[in-house]
Amino acid sequence: MSGTPRARALGAQLRRVRKEAGLSLRDLAQKMGTTFSTIGKWETGERSPRLEDVVRCLDALEVDGARREELLDLAQSTDGPHWIAVGMPAPPQQLVALMDFERRARTITEVTPLIVPGLLQTADYARSMMTASGMKRTEVETRVAMRVGRRDVLHRNSLHFTAIIGEAALRAVIGGKSVMIDQLRFLLKWGQQPNITLRLVSQESDWNPLLEGQFAVITFESDDPIATSENQISSLFFHRPKDVASFQERIDQLLTTSMELPDTLGWIANRVTYLESL
């Protein structure tokens, strides 16, 4: 059975650092006096290394400074039932973990009541939101580049991405009319790809799980699925089967009440026409 999201995140980071150091699994194992299969299980998240193991690994890889502190922090309580990070923007290791999960995903289903899902945001739309939130300009550009870069996963035919979006998200005029029109046209473009499904939830709908806030479920070919949930001050990863199943039940409910893809694309096209007429 695969490990927790935090263990998998730590493993992904250790693998990245090892490769940057130019070492093979056998090379690192020899330096640490352990087996390469053990390190391999750490890197896949199948097994959680003890804190002292991570210290020895970082010593062997000559990692110090802020990066060492981040990895040691990530190594704390990797077997916990959840992984929460308080404070926005998300810590670097958590963003890297999310990108790794997206890269290896078989399916991603994201529910967003009030904004366009991150993987489908244009650079100008993302920049407008981040700037309005008070983020420093230098950090904004770095994060916009990372968000746009994450979109590369959508070019994989082996990944199917489903976005369930609240109508309010597409009625908002974030960044001004021009930015929003470009964003809506961008959704129309991606909504025609065979591995992308867009589903719109009407504002006139009865109570539904969309009203509980943003969340996503990510499934993999061989690893157990995970769920994520974010709000203004925290980001949380879930991996216990009953928790992930609860989020999946909400998705199933939304799929029965949201607009089908053709109706969703028609609604977006009409919205573009309306904004262009203003």
Tags for this model:
Transcriptional regulator; Endonuclease, Chain A; 7 strands; 278 residues; 434 Repressor (Amino-terminal Domain); 7-stranded mixed β-sheet; alpha/beta
Describe the protein's architecture and organization.
- One of its GO terms (molecular function) is DNA binding.
- This is Transcriptional regulator.
- It comes from Longimycelium tulufanense.
- Residues 14-68 form the HTH cro/C1-type domain.
- This protein is of the alpha/beta class and 278 residues long.
- It has two domains: 5-75, lambda repressor-like DNA-binding domains (434 Repressor (Amino-terminal Domain)), CATH 1.10.260.40; 84-277, Endonuclease, Chain A (2-Layer Sandwich).
- Helices cover 52% and strands 15% of the residues.
- The protein has twelve helices and seven strands.
- It has helices at 5-20, 25-32, 36-44, 51-60, 65-75, 92-104, 123-132, 137-150, 167-171, 177-190, 241-257, 261-277, and strands spanning 82-86, 105-112, 160-166, 196-201, 215-220, 226-230, 234-238.
- A seven-stranded mixed beta sheet has the order 1-7-6-5-2-3-4, sandwiched between helices.
- Strand 5 (215-220) and strand 6 form a beta hairpin.
- The N and C termini lie far apart (55 Å).
Q: What's the SSE blueprint?
A:
Blueprint: H1 5-20, H2 25-32, H3 36-44, H4 51-60, H5 65-75, E1 82-86, H6 92-104, E2 105-112, H7 123-132, H8 137-150, E3 160-166, H9 167-171, H10 177-190, E4 196-201, E5 215-220, E6 226-230, E7 234-238, H11 241-257, H12 261-277
Parallel strand pairs: 2-3, 3-4
Antiparallel strand pairs: 1-7, 2-5, 5-6, 6-7
Helix pairs in contact: 1-3, 1-6, 2-3, 4-5, 7-8, 10-12
